[in-house]
Automatic annotation (TrEMBL):
Designated name of the protein: DUF368 domain-containing protein
Keyword Membrane recorded: yes
Listed transmembrane segments: 99-117, 129-150, 156-174, 186-212, 245-266, 278-294, 306-329
Top-level taxon in the UniProt lineage: Archaea
Keyword DNA-binding among record annotations: no
Keywords: Membrane, Transmembrane, Transmembrane helix
Signal peptide: none
């Protein structure tokens, strides 16, 4: 095997020499569990957890290291071009994107998301008032925390905030139930937007899925897909797996595209005009307060008992997020 001419084979890492110790794997996996749990509920951001855990800069560096040039070099190293397949050269490109860190982190996030979405799926069927009341509290407290950290001092910033609020308020007026029949294109777009937002501290990807009316749909789709996989091991059919996999795979593909496109656009917007961009993002959170109310109204309606349950759950959700914010000390949006 002949490595590409621009890389010295002596400098290429070996798989054995690059594998981190078990303790590092476990720590990163546990952080992934916390991030996934946060990403699974609206109002809490996995990016905030990454910031608290001290891995945010490493995560952003790993994501931004995935460039078209690096992907091309990786594929060329695995092809018979340039003198033959170069496995060490291909692996060297993976090391440049901190592959072991990403694998353990994504594994933790994936496990947590599966667990959280199952809980949400059951709660949405059994106690929608409590579930969406809890979400309302999370979103409201998140808005308070973000607004406290935001400084707006120009008409342009105010304008972007108004646009963000109106956009979220109008779009979140469509309930998840009404949006369940949306096309796979909408699922793909939801993946692009939701996943890209999950890495931004203070901005919840799940919240954006609620605004788009896709949160309950994707929670149900993931639960059904996991159930089909489990059933396959006990005599289920492959057809059930492939059918339930379609929306999940579509969402994941959209998420990958969004992670390397929309997330970069948001980062550039933050670099260009940080305060206006943050005003828009925070206003989205405020406008999204309409979504849980619409969900409860469409699912069960607001009677006295439902309203009391909704308010109680909202208080618990708000208290939960405020406690999280307390341990996070102060979220400085200027460091996002």
């Amino acid at each position: 095997m002949t490595p590409p001419p621009d890389r010295d084979p002596i400098d290429q890492p070996t798989i054995r020499g690059s594998v981190p110790p078990l303790r590092a794997w476990i720590r990163t996996f546990l952080i992934g569990l916390c991030m996934g749990s946060a990403d699974g509920v609206p109002g809490v951001s996995g990016g905030t957890i990454a910031l608290i855990a001290g891995i945010y800069e490493r995560l952003i560096a790993a994501i931004t290291a995935v460039t078209p040039g690096r992907i091309i070099r990786f594929l060329r190293a695995l092809s018979p071009l340039d003198g033959g397949v170069d496995l060490r050269g291909a692996f060297a490109e993976l090391i440049e994107v901190d592959i072991w860190f990403l694998l353990s982190l994504v594994a933790g996030v994936g496990v947590a998301v599966v667990i959280v979405t199952r809980i949400v799926h059951i709660a949405s069927q059994e106690t929608p008032a409590l579930l969406f009341g809890f979400f309302f509290g999370l979103i409201a407290a998140s808005a308070v925390v973000l607004l406290r950290s935001l400084t707006v001092d120009s008409p342009f910033q105010i304008g972007t905030g108004v646009v963000g609020f109106l956009l979220a308020f109008v779009v979140s007026g469509v309930s998840n139930t009404a949006a369940d029949g949306g096309s796979l294109v909408l699922v793909f777009i939801a993946g692009m937007i939701g996943v890209s937002a999950m890495i931004l501290p203070g901005i919840s990807g799940s919240l954006l899925l609620i605004i788009l009316g896709q949160y309950d749909r994707m929670s149900t789709a993931l639960t059904e897909f996991v159930d089909a996989l489990i059933a396959l091991a006990t005599g289920g059919t492959v057809e059930d797996v492939t059918t339930t996999a379609i929306p999940v795979v579509t969402f994941i593909l959209g998420g990958l595209v969004g992670l390397f496109t929309i997330a970069r656009v948001v980062r550039r917007a933050l670099d260009y005009n940080r305060r206006a961009t943050l005003a828009f993002l925070v206003a989205l959170v405020v406008g999204a307060l309409r979504a849980p109310v619409v969900e409860v109204r469409s699912e069960v309606g607001f009677s006295t008992d439902v309203l009391i349950a909704f308010i109680a759950a909202a208080a618990i959700g708000a208290a939960f997020l405020l406690v999280l914010d307390w341990y996070a000390v102060d979220l400085d949006l200027d460091k996002v």
